[in-house]
Amino acid sequence: MADDDTAHTNGNGHEENGLVPEIELIIKASTIDGRRKGACLFCQEYFMDLYLLAELKTISLKVTTVDMQKPPPDFRSNFDANPPPILIDNGMAVLENEKIERHIMKNIPGGYNLFVQDKEVATLIENLYSKLKLMLLKKDDVSINSLLSHLRKINSHLEKKNTRFLTGDTMCCFDCELMPRLQHIRVAGKYFMDFQMPTDLRYLWRYMLHMYQLDAFTQSCPADQDIVNHYKQQQNVKMKKHEELETPTFTTSIPVELDLQDE
After folding, report:
1. If you average pLDDT over every residue of the chain, what do you get?
2. How far apart are CA 256 and CA 240, in angstroms?
3. What's the angle, vertex CA 25, arms to CA 38 and CA 97, rounded to 5?
4. H/E run at residue 66
5. C-alpha to C-alpha distance for 98 and 65, rounded to whole angstroms
6. Which residues contact 116 (CB under 8 A, 6 or more apart)?
7. Strand-by-strand arrangement of the 86-89 sheet
8. Which of 80, 134, 137, 241 is the most buried if burial means most Cβ atoms within 10 Å?
9. What is residue 29's three-state secondary structure?
10. pLDDT tens digit string along 193-233?
């Protein structure tokens, strides 16, 4: 297993002093080099949740990557063969996504404030990822239009709300869920199908611009190559040798024709 050094600083230079609990999050490592952050959506989602709490200094966060293709000998015995994400709080391992979410909300200082109740937003972002997977599988106009329609609904919500994030001007759990999925849509859609989010989705692009400016997203975001390889593996497409040698790239810009800096 490898520590992710970026997580130790928590974006604020916080040092362990015994006053706040140390939370460890074990996430899947890159399927390319086995060390850097992998492209697991749930791993990034909880990484973002916990990073936000670390920035508020309610916790000290340690993030560890584990190569699931070559896990350490004791990994499976310690965690009942459960794959990451795995949260460790005071020596107790929390397994399974729903339990991790519940633990952050109920047991980690400040976590309750992240998990706002908003049925409209919950419904709005539901099934977005399944529409990406369907588009990559079908590669037809019906699946493309279905995904576009969903993105337009999110854009309309952001326009109506006119806030930085989904439920207001403060990030919440829904943003930590949505933004990694938007990144997968952007990177994988472009690579496999030359799919691009239309520039007329102005409020969605503004939302993404705000997210790209936040450490919680950039520190947790996998490289473009890892996102692409995630879907190559699903499609049983073998990675080429030169891909292991590529310098990781991160798509965090917006189309040049959109001038959103002052919005």
Report:
1. 90
2. 31
3. 80
4. strand 60-66
5. 20
6. 167, 172, 173, 174
7. 2-3, 60-66, 22-28, 86-89, 92-94
8. 134
9. strand
10. 999 999 999 999 999 999 999 999 999 999 999 999 999 99
User: What is the mean pLDDT for each group of 10 consecutive residues in the chain (263 residues)?
Assistant: 53 51 97 94 98 97 94 82 93 95 96 95 96 96 98 98 96 98 98 96 96 97 96 82 80 86 58
Is 113 in contact with 68 (CB distance < 8 Å)?
no
* Phi and psi angles of residue 61, each rounded to the nearest 5 degrees, phi first: -110, 130
Q: Are 116 and 165 in contact (CB under 8 A)?
A: no
Backbone φ and ψ for 218, nearest 5 degrees, come out as -65, -35
pLDDT digits (tens, 9 = 90+) for 68-96: 989 888 887 788 778 999 999 999 999 99
Are 10 and 37 spatial neighbours (Cβ–Cβ below 8 Å)?
A: no
Are 85 and 100 within 8 A, CB to CB? yes
